[in-house]
Amino acid sequence: MLARNVYIGGSSSSRRKPGKSKQLTKGSGSSSGIRYNTSRAKSSSISAKTHTSLLKAFDSNKSSPGTGGYRLDVVRPGHGGGRQSLLSFENHRQPREASRSPADDADGYSQSDHRDDEDEDEDNDDESQEEESLRMGSDEEKSRKKGNKNLTWKQKLKQRKEAERMHGVYTHVADAGTRLLANAGQFGASESGRSYAGGTRRKRRTTRGKGKRPRKAKRKGLWKDLSLNSEDEELHRALAPSSSQHRTTHPDLASKQHSPHRRLVKKDDAETGVLVENEQGEGSHSIKVDTDFALLASGQTFGFNTYIKRGLLYELLQLLHPTPPSHADPAPASAPASLIQNSKHPSYRAPHLSLVISLSNSFSDFLRDLPILCQSLGDFIIGLPDVDEEVVAREWRSVMRGAEEVLTGFMKSEGDEAKEKLQDVVGKTIGLLITQMHTSDFIKSTIDLMTFDVCWFVMEMLLRAGFELSSSKLLSDACKILVQYLLEVDPGLRDVMTLMRDQDSEKREFNDSTSIVQREAELWVCLIHVLTPGVTDGLSCEHPLWDIIRKELERRSSAAAKWTLQANEIIWQTIAGLCALSQFSEHGLCKDKPSISEGWKIVFFALKNVQLKADLAIDQQLNSAPLRMKDRYFALIVRRCFFLVDRWKWAIRSSFPVLNIFSGAFGTRKFRNLLHEKADFPEFLRTQRWESCFEYSRRDSAFVLFVKLVVQRGIALKQSEKPSPHSLEKNLTLITPLSSVEMFSKAHPPQGNELSMLYNRMAAIAVRIHLSPSDYCSRVQQARQYFNFRTSDDTSRMACIRSLMYVTQMMILERLPLEQTEVNAWYTEIVEVLIKEYKELSGKEEKSLNRVRFLLNAVLGSLRHILNAYNDPEMEAEYPDLSLFDVVQKIGREAVVTDNTQTAREFAAVIRTFLTLRDKVVSPPERPPIEPLLDNGVESNDNQESQEYGEVDIDMNDPALDELLGGNAISNAANRLHQDIEVKDRVVGRSLNSLTWLIYRCLKNMFEGYPEGRSPSPQVMDNVDGWIDTWIQCASIAIMHSQSMTWFSLCLDIRKTWTAIGDVHWRRRIDIRVALNILRRAPMSYTDSKLKDYFIETLFDCLIPVKVTVENDFLSCIFSIDGLRHPLLRNLPVTLPPYPKILALSKNDFTTSRDKFLRGILDNIEQSLHDEENESGNRIVLGENVTNKKYGNFLAKFFYSLKEMYSSMPEGSNECQDYKIKCKDLCTMTFEDHPRIGTWRRLATWDVWWKGLN
């Protein structure tokens, strides 16, 4: 027996209205093929007996020779009372290659016409004749179609009555060449239009061009598309939930009786927008999992002839939730007519009924007519289509709109008793209509625009009558049936999203009133705005639409025969589509932000519908390919959940059930990264930027994204009005591993990304310390237990060092003291193991020794990075933790520092970083109490004018003022801090006593190891400058806290180390660098007479006319510290800043003033000789007193250095000639411009030398 819903191409198609017939696929022709609905009603293929009888009837019912066709009457039971259906088989053989589905070509040929090759050869001639006859239309058919257009209203009424009399009877006339296929009953009317191809040709390629593959579009959402094979049994076993093996039917479906479907939707073309059911098809082997979670382009809008743009949704929202004018949004561009108060109320007449709806009618008339109206409306949408159904449908839409306005008018004008009565009538009437629609069992092929309009009419009537979703089951049922139909027509909102994301469309205005896809999108937007979330437990305000959709998807999942990956993807597509549609406002304009609240329950349902855990019993039976694909799908799901929070702005506080599923899935993997992911620490731990937990990065693994969600939820819980420690601890347990981590060793090093188990555990510990710092000490102890450094391989050791570094950095940034933790003990263990191995390998295999050196350098580098955490801009200056310096000292005691240059550099970098941080906390070094001379020798206090102040009303007996003036205003906390810094600095000073000599040995190695006769490169000199800075810095602290050490014993007495350097430029640079550092680090050393002479001697070196390095800095420092009080520095052309500022002399200023400074010093020496001459009266022998002898030594050394520089230059070179000119000028200024210096015996040798230059 044939199925109840039969669509056979032929003359009957003209009787069906456009939009009501079964929709054909593009390029399939007007009609062809036989389709039976097998999805709802029980049907089977034609039996052999029935087939034989049909063929006999086919031969006996030949039509007239004029038509050249056949007439076949097929008897079947009708909808009511055994009526007959006369079925036509016209054009059933017309080719429809474009409509074939991949399911038909599983083996390369269509299932509808599997025949042997011999049969095909025999039928070639017959088929060519059939195809030729199919091109000719029936004259009778054409004339009948043409006649229908010219019928009068009475003739149409007569036809309609005749159709009612013949209810359930269809007569189809076949053209010549029509044959009946025995397997025609295998295809249902509700199946895809491409389910039946009608021919046996192979499926053509649908790609553009010859042999070219279509380009993949760039995605703004997920970083990589994922293609899954739906027929992969191993992948099905890997992803299918355990509950799918024992699936039961949903209770709502078990008792549901399938009724015949009366209205079939015609498949005209793509404009109607009806999505073919099961678009991917049963035979579609590939699922493109590329759901785009990107926001819609703002600025899109619905057209002015749509429900939303006409302001009807805005009117309904204002009716339900009145907004004050000051807070109301601007009115839509075209306001509906219902918003205008008319004095005359319009009337609406129901089609084919003597029933008028109007506010002019009485209240009792409306109560009487409303049930009749709804009953007739229900009969219309489930009955047979009318000849002029489009006209009737427009009339019904007008009547429905009128009924809504009349209902609103009576609800506003009538009293409370009448309102209750009206609400009761509306509830009963609409309830019957909902029941009628529910029992009619609409499927995809029977749902059209009118069906959706009636569903929304039901919703709007209930809302206008005062029903609420929280208290009315009736309104809930209305929402459920509308959502059911929307998901029936477009599962996953695929067509809606295709329409919204169509980048080829130039006009971004949706104004096609005949598009069912556009109407679906409009209804979704209406539901989002009409259904408002309510406050539940204070944690979330989930939108009620999510719960309705979830229940509908659960019903469909329960009804499915088996679990499929396509069904799970429909859930995610629905979530993404609804979030995107929430960007549309109540005025139909797409904004840049979504408006729908979170719905984690539907996400939880989607996650429970797929197996994410690693099942060892199943995984061992599968190949690696499906397991990797499963992990890729798992990573995709985690990213989707992150996008829900990051892009769609879902509140995360109520997401614990979802995160708990992720926690269980990662727990079965021992917190290891997925198979396709690399292993590394998360970015927020490497950079110590917890703000990155709110940012998506394509480099993040699935576990890192999961941890970021946990962090976001933890922060949200802490920022809540009533934070609960229990809730926070429960949240942190999600990332707390319960299983122990495998200890890697040299015999069993980590393979693949197994090291990620350690990285992820350290990330979890860092999160716990960040969100719950109260137990940070135990967390550090727990982290140390993850490693056994002594037996680990080198890769695991490096992971251990990095783990310790990141955790320690985080504790410093969190301002958690390190003394109570195991950081020092952990570092000590690492250093002791490496030092022991270094000693054992010394003198043996160099490769193994370099491996230990590399790890030691890594330890020193980690210490430097930890110390750099104190430089964070948000941190206050703090003395570095001494436990870190203790580790540096342990390494400094070993010869490994001086044996390897790279290790020595890392060691010095750590020391330099530590002391730089120390300088930020410790008070700057004390300067000599010398008031500088300003304005060429005038005392600074001489320029101060007396200032008079008026009377000040101050109570000198005030105890608070007395305490303040007595110095007790400094808080005890500040005193304790100062004392703590002094204690720490004293400890560091004692330790630096030995480290200073260690650094000196490293510096000495650089001098001794440099080749003689070779000028150093700028990089080498800069490197030595850094060593000198570190050396002097350590020495200054050691001398400060020592009673016996002096600058001479520690530095100046060992200058022979670099004075033996052959390069005079480098040697001079080192001398000035050492003097500058001593003067900066210990300004009080200038008060020592020996050191003062050393600094003045260096001053003369700075005046030699060569390339400037730090000479300007030295002069700025000595001028400021001396205050131009020294006899040689008086009246120099320089203006000092007020005390205690330091003069900032640039290199350019120094270069232009260098000769002026030298002339001023020579003038002072000349004056000193003149004073000696006046005192002794001896004009022949000058410079014999102590002071002038000292000055003579300064000048002699100056000219010696001048000559040495000249001698080091290549003779005859341009550089040498230029320097020679400078030397002549200096000597002329010295010996000719200053006659006493020119006749000074101490400088007679240099007088001869410069004259020899001429």
How does the SSE layout of this entry go?
Layout lengths: L5 E3 L25 E3 L11 H13 L9 E2 L45 H6 L1 H11 L4 H11 L3 H13 L7 E2 L51 E4 L3 H7 L11 H4 L31 E4 L11 E2 L9 H9 L26 E3 L6 E3 L4 H20 L6 H25 L2 H25 L8 H16 L8 H17 L4 H7 L8 E2 L5 H15 L13 H16 L5 H17 L18 H9 L7 H4 L4 H23 L9 H13 L14 H4 L15 H17 L6 H8 L23 H16 L4 H9 L9 H20 L9 H19 L4 H23 L13 H11 L3 H4 L1 H21 L11 E2 L3 E2 L19 H7 L6 H37 L9 H23 L6 H4 L5 H4 L4 H18 L7 H14 L8 H12 L24 H30 L9 H23 L5 H19 L2 H4 L5 H9 L2
Parallel strand pairs: 7-10
Antiparallel strand pairs: 1-2, 3-4, 5-6, 8-9, 11-12
Helix pairs in contact: 6-20, 9-10, 9-11, 10-12, 11-12, 11-13, 12-13, 13-16, 20-23, 21-23, 23-24, 23-25, 25-26, 25-27, 26-27, 27-29, 28-29, 28-30, 29-32, 30-32, 30-34, 32-34, 32-35, 34-35, 35-38, 38-39, 38-40, 39-42
Structure at a glance:
This protein is mainly alpha-helical and 1254 residues long.
Overall geometry: elongated
Strand content: under 5%
Fraction of residues in H or I helices: 40-55%
Strand count, sense and closure of the main sheet? 2 strands, antiparallel
**How many helix segments?**
45
Average pLDDT level: 77
First-last Cα distance:
129 Å
Q: Structural class from helices and strands?
A: mainly alpha
Number of strands: 12
Radius of gyration: 47 Å
The multimeric state of the shown protein is: single chain
Protein name: Mus7/MMS22 family-domain-containing protein
InterPro entries: Mms22
